[in-house]
Amino acid sequence: MSFTLSRQFAETEDRNDPLAPYRRLFPPAAERIYLAGNSLGLWSERAEQSLMAVLESWRHHGVDGWSHGPYPWFDLSERLGRLMVPLVGANPHEVIVTGSTTVNLHQLLATFYRPRGRRIKILTDSLAFPSDIYAIKSHITLHGLTVEEALIEVASPDGLTLDENAVIQAMTDDVALVILPSVLFVSGQRLDMATLTAAAHDRGILIGFDLAHSVGIMPHQLSAWGVDFAFWCTYKYLNGGPGSVGALYVADRHLPKTPGLAGWFSSDKAVQFDMAHTLVPSSDAGAFQIGTPHILSLAPLMGSLEMFREIPIETIRDKSLRLTRYLMDLVNHRLADRGFRIVTPLQDARRGGHVALAHPDAIRISKALKARQVIPDYRPPRIIRLAPSPLYTTYQDVWDTVNHLWEIMEYREYERYSPEREVVS
């Protein structure tokens, strides 16, 4: 990619952007520069429309909303799963929208973590999202093991990235299960899921991925890569709203497996209302549901995923890479002497959807950006994450953000702010 580092170039790119019409569906994007979509995506008109349609079904149909209205609730999770399929490269019966990221990880651990003989360990990484680690540790102790004997956290060489060769070397014959992120949540490093999956399987180990920072921003080929299972949230790049329902994938070859945690929505839908005390599980990924779907938290996702059905994920990925490349080029050109360091991999194939900047005064700079109506995402102790979302971020937004950063540093505006972070950062 080759860019001219002027605002005029950004204006030209925006005029030629095939995704430009979608920005109008995100009115808040016109009010401020929003670069925190890797934490919580923006509200859209489509999401509001599907939410209001479900609320209207509740008002009009009451309990019959389970089977009537534009979005009948009884199989809404399955229909949303089918909309998700092109984003993760799966078969329709392998995906279900259910639970939350951590609840789904608990379900998958309860199903796939079966320590036997020497194979008792779970392999993960030292940079994993904390909630994943909490869940993993809880299942180790539920099996009567100690964290010290059954958990391997592959260390980072620099506190920000992972060496995949080190991960593969740690796949020893006492490992039962590997759980890794697709994209590291702080640095934005993208892992090679295909290579890691092949390495695990060569050693007789099951492997699953947390896709929270990759679904909706890049293509996946979970079935083709042979991934055993995966789980992700829907409130980041998928713009499903705060607390929107999560999703999971289970490879076809594992679907006959009895889910570790059962509930009545695990049932084959044809017999669910027989109310028998013997579970007849669904033959597809729906078996990995537990309780009644959170309908009002599913509803906005329907409108959002309808947008993704209209746009090839490859088009989204192309713009994402161009936006992040442009951002990094501008940072290197204008901020190299201001103490900023890009910690996200520069190679396109190694980068997720956001750019992470390290700076000793990151928290105060983040506050100064917000005062200028630029919304970043801060991660302690020194990282500013900037996530241009292809559906609503413009090239001009990127140029203006770097210009704001230059002015904040030039005029020392950040010194006006406390170095104490907010409770939610």
TrEMBL record:
Q: Does the keyword Aminoacyl-tRNA synthetase apply?
A: no
Enumerate the InterPro entries for this protein.
Kynureninase, PyrdxlP-dep_Trfase, PyrdxlP-dep_Trfase_major, PyrdxlP-dep_Trfase_small
User: Gene3D superfamilies given for it?
Assistant: Aspartate Aminotransferase, domain 1 (3.90.1150.10), Type I PLP-dependent aspartate aminotransferase-like (Major domain) (3.40.640.10)
**Catalysed reaction equations from the record:** L-kynurenine + H2O = anthranilate + L-alanine + H(+); 3-hydroxy-L-kynurenine + H2O = 3-hydroxyanthranilate + L-alanine + H(+)
Q: Name one GO cellular component term.
A: cytoplasm
The entry's pyridoxal 5'-phosphate-binding residues are: 101-102, 129-132, 210, 213, 235, 264, 292
One of its Pfam families is KYNU_C
Q: Which UniProt keywords apply?
A: Hydrolase, Pyridine nucleotide biosynthesis, Pyridoxal phosphate
- Which BP terms from GO are recorded? anthranilate metabolic process; L-kynurenine catabolic process; L-tryptophan catabolic process to kynurenine; NAD+ biosynthetic process; quinolinate biosynthetic process
Which domain of life does this protein belong to?
Answer: Bacteria
Cofactor(s) annotated in UniProt? pyridoxal 5'-phosphate
Instruction: Please tell me which top-level EC class this enzyme sits in.
Output: hydrolase
EC number from the UniProt entry: 3.7.1.3
Chloroplast recorded as keyword: no
Pathway listed for it? Amino-acid degradation; L-kynurenine degradation; L-alanine and anthranilate from L-kynurenine: step 1/1; Cofactor biosynthesis; NAD(+) biosynthesis; quinolinate from L-kynurenine: step 2/3
Post-translational modification N6-(pyridoxal phosphate)lysine, affected residues: 236
- Alphabetized GO MF terms: kynureninase activity; pyridoxal phosphate binding
Q: Which family does it belong to?
A: Belongs to the kynureninase family.
Subunit relationships: Homodimer.
Job of this protein: Catalyzes the cleavage of L-kynurenine (L-Kyn) and L-3-hydroxykynurenine (L-3OHKyn) into anthranilic acid (AA) and 3-hydroxyanthranilic acid (3-OHAA), respectively.
| Matches recorded under NCBIfam families | kynureninase (TIGR01814)
This chain belongs to the protein called: Kynureninase
The scientific name of the source species is: Sulfobacillus acidophilus (strain ATCC 700253 / DSM 10332 / NAL)
Q: Which gene encodes it?
A: kynU
